[in-house]
Write a structure and sequence with these properties.
Elements lengths: L1 H17 L15 H7 L2 E3 L2 E5 H8 L2 E5 L4 E5 L4 E5 L4 E4 L2 E4 L5 E3 L2 E5 H8 L14 E2 L5 E2 L5 E6 L16 H17 L4 E4 L9 H10 L4 E8 L9 E6 L5 H10 L9 H5 L3 H32 L4 E7 L11 E8 L3 H8 L1 H24 L6
Parallel strand pairs: 12-13, 12-14, 14-17, 15-16
Antiparallel strand pairs: 1-2, 2-9, 3-4, 4-5, 5-6, 6-7, 8-9, 10-11, 15-17
Helix pairs in contact: 5-11, 9-11
């Protein structure tokens, strides 16, 4: 009898766990019922009214993500982009740091947000439903493009007073990256993408502004194109990076090399003295997008291996400043070594540059196809 009672108690506890507030989905109802529906889901903890973040997302049609390792969450729709961290009272709302009434906490397996913050920042005005974030998109030519991913920002590395790396025969990185970026833009536009270049001429643009351009354009992903350099003459190859700690000493040195243009920026001292809190909150963004960045990097690397017949250095991570602050999957492509005589000769060739652009485009298209088949669930 005692064993039977314990078994029934175990079943009851299991059922209760399955239907935790954080896993609930509220049925859609009339807009004016939104407020009462939220209050029905509130829990009072330490005299603060909380609501499961996922419930608010279901009610107001936000896309939701949660990193179980980093204990960080993100939600977004067509107009808002918000990031939280468990135990923190600060949230990153679009590009602005805001303080909530109380910290985001875990309760019965669900991430809970203060009800006041949900009402102020997540609930749309007058409780109107927000348009779904992924609607049919148009290219510049006007045709309908029913893809979940449709906007790309391409960044041609360096420019203006910053030539980047210089080859032994005088070829500059800024020249090569701009040409490849323009070719890539044309190829993607032919495939129903809307593309924006951070620079379309020989112009200097601060590193931090490049990711800001991608954010303001509301891009689905950000691609920065560069050319590598090394003191070793025979260093060669194609490689793709995503933002994280440097994978090895070579990656660390490369990041330092590409970040050197910070010294040319007037606001360099401001960059170095950036607020620690802001850095932590931006890390919420990079953590969430890291998985998708790695997937995109892998597809581009595979495409280059198949089409370019160059040495492949693979996919790596490093702390490239140009990728920091991007609110979407972001990668940096090193198309070759300008300090290698053979690769410098290749990079002088316009036909080869077109092959490089074509290879990157194919990787992007494959990523989009996989993303489309999974309906956005690629993480």
């Amino acid at each position: 009898m005692k064993k039977k009672f314990l078994y029934l108690l175990f079943i009851l506890c299991t059922v209760q766990f399955v239907f935790l507030p954080g896993c609930a989905t509220i049925p859609k109802s009339a807009p004016l019922e939104a407020s009462s529906a939220l209050r029905d889901q509130t829990v009072t903890i330490n005299n603060i009214s909380y609501i499961p973040a996922i419930v608010a997302c279901d009610r107001f049609e936000y896309k939701w993500s949660w990193d179980t390792v980093a204990r960080k969450a993100g939600i977004q729709n067509k107009t808002n982009y918000i990031r939280f961290a468990e135990g923190s009272s600060f949230a990153l709302v679009n590009d602005k740091i805001e303080r909530m009434e109380a910290p985001a906490i875990l309760y019965r397996g669900a991430l809970m947000l203060p009800l006041s913050f949900v009402q102020d920042r997540i609930m749309p005005p007058q409780f109107k439903n927000i348009e779904k974030p992924f609607a049919a998109k148009k290219t510049l030519r006007g045709q309908q493009c029913k893809y979940l991913l449709g906007k790309v920002v391409i960044d041609a590395g360096h420019g203006g007073k910053d030539p980047g790396a210089i080859g032994r025969c005088g070829l500059t990185e800024k020249e090569v990256t701009l040409d490849i970026a323009k070719r890539l833009k044309k190829k993607l536009e032919q495939e129903c993408f809307s593309v924006y270049l951070t620079r379309s001429s020989d112009k200097f643009i601060p590193l931090a502004k490049r990711s800001q351009i991608a954010n303001s354009y509301n891009a689905d992903f950000f691609i920065s194109i560069h050319v590598n350099a090394a003191r070793i003459k025979n260093a060669k190859g194609f490689e793709v990076y995503y933002l994280s700690e440097a994978a090895d000493e070579a990656a660390k040195r490369l990041a330092e090399q590409e970040n050197a243009s910070l010294k040319l920026e007037e606001a360099y001292h401001k960059v170095n003295s950036s607020n620690n809190l802001e850095g932590i909150l931006w890390d919420l963004v990079s953590t969430e997008n890291r998985a998708e960045s790695i997937q995109l990097a892998n597809w581009i690397s595979k495409s280059a291996k198949k089409d370019l017949w160059v040495y492949q250095r693979g996919v790596k991570s490093a702390g490239f400043y140009v990728l920091k602050g991007a609110r979407m999957p972001a990668i940096l492509v090193e198309v070759g070594f300008i300090t290698n005589r053979d690769e410098e000769e290749k990079l002088k060739d316009h036909a080869y540059r077109d092959k490089v652009a074509d290879s990157i485009a194919k990787g992007i298209l494959t990523y989009r196809e996989e993303y489309q088949l999974a309906e956005g669930f690629t993480k």
